[in-house]
Request: fold
Amino acid sequence: MSMTADQWLRFWDIGDLTSDKLLAFKFHCKHLPEDSLSACAITNDCNFLLTADTSGHLKKWDIS
Reply:
């Protein structure tokens, strides 16, 4: 998983590094437009994704 200042999270499939289709999923986090993502994490049970922005706001996403 990688994140960018423009609030996009990208999930990568690195199982086959010879493939040209490494990007598996792309997700826009929709925090406030003036903020950038500052952190992201997935819970141990893989049911929730947490994102944080530069204003200190957190969002919890149900990804189960």
Observations:
- The chain is about 0% helix and 45% strand.
